[in-house]
């Protein structure tokens, strides 16, 4: 995948601006329309695990591995400030691009993967996710030709406040040696999404010890009855929301990890930076387990002694054991927050309707 352009603003799609309604107003009115025309969600939302999906895939699936995204000084400045960087990547065989987000996370890759792969607890972490459960898992013996190690099948239920929730079934493919997770719909089951494909790529930060650089991309297509404004909103928000929750919960978990103090102490002894290519540390896009031309010097410090930094860090990071998440905590705060959001949404839609009616009356009076 090759980058088409750089920049902070990627939109999954565009809509034609009307003469009276700004984009936010169109989104609100689209949601209101859904409330009116979908009093019984079962009339249209008919996901069914007992029947196959209508097709075997319309979106081109992602390939695992390095996305080959070039990060210039502007991108690195955005990332170092803690913000996500958005760009567009080329899809082989297509003239269009897909949005991709890059985020730096203060946690090593194994801690990040622990959060990404914890699908059974997504409802506690991921915005607009109301249900998420694995229904099948398969282990594979990875080979050089086929590095796939695990297939995970997961049911999701997602949505926005005040509109019917959508259920869909996902097939995840996990490639640890390629630092990647890709997914498509499970086409053996009928989903409320027309199609969905996505991609995670997580590597050690090239300069900051105990940090990761996370790449995420997704493509979603909905059925024709869903307003395009809602599709664009959900697709665009999905990019930054995904890296946002991964950053939050990975860093929270890393704060309580007993390895952190030792690794940060080692980092301070190295100026707060991971070793560069001369010391044998992996670069951003290096193949896992690969060696560079200076590998013979990778375990030797400037004074000729063995490098404790490399050995100790590799030892720490290689012995990480995922911890369980307590899902029995009360969620009263989340309920109150959701109620406030719904009330605010209704008030906003009402205000916009009154405002646009007044504009129409003014134009009528002028004519």
From TrEMBL:
Q: Does the keyword Cell inner membrane apply?
A: no
- Region spans: Disordered: 265-303
Is Signal given among the entry's keywords? yes
Keywords (alphabetical) are: Signal
The UniProt entry, under SUPFAM superfamilies, shows: Bet v1-like (SSF55961)
User: Would you indicate the residue range of the signal peptide?
Assistant: 1-46
Protein name, please?
Coenzyme Q-binding protein COQ10 START domain-containing protein
């Amino acid at each position: 995948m090759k980058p088409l352009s750089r920049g902070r603003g990627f939109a999954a799609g565009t809509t034609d601006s009307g003469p009276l309604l700004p984009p936010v107003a169109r989104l609100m009115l689209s949601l209101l329309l859904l409330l009116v025309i979908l009093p019984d969600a079962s009339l249209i939302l008919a996901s069914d695990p007992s029947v196959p999906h209508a097709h075997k895939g319309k979106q081109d699936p992602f390939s695992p591995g390095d996305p080959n995204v070039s990060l210039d000084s502007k991108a690195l400045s955005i990332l170092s400030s803690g913000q996500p960087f958005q760009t567009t990547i080329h899809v082989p065989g297509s003239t269009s691009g897909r949005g991709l987000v890059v985020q730096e996370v203060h946690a090593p890759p194994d801690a990040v993967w622990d959060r990404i792969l914890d699908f059974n607890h997504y409802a506690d972490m991921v915005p607009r996710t109301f249900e998420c459960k694995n229904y099948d898992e398969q282990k594979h013996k990875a080979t050089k030709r086929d590095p796939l190690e695990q297939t995970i099948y997961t049911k999701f239920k997602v949505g926005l406040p005040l509109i019917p929730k959508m259920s869909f079934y996902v097939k995840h493919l996990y490639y640890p040696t390629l630092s990647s997770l890709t997914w498509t719909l499970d086409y053996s089951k009928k989903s409320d999404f027309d199609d969905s494909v996505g991609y995670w790529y997580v590597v050690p930060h090239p300069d900051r010890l105990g940090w990761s650089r996370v790449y995420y991309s997704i493509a979603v297509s909905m059925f024709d009855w869903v307003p395009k404004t809602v599709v664009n909103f959900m697709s665009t928000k999905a990019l930054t929301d995904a890296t946002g929750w991964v950053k939050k919960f990975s860093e929270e978990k890393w704060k309580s990890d007993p390895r952190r103090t030792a690794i940060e102490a080692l980092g301070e002894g190295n100026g707060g930076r991971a070793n560069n290519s001369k010391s044998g540390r992996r670069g951003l896009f290096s193949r896992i387990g690969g060696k560079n031309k200076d590998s013979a010097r990778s375990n030797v410090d400037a004074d000729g002694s063995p490098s404790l930094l490399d050995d100790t860090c590799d030892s720490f990071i290689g012995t990480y054991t995922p911890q369980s998440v307590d899902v029995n905590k009360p969620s009263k705060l989340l309920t109150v927050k959701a109620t406030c959001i719904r009330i605010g949404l209704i008030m906003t839609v009402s205000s916009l309707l009154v405002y646009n009616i007044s504009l129409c009356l003014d134009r009528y009076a002028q004519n």
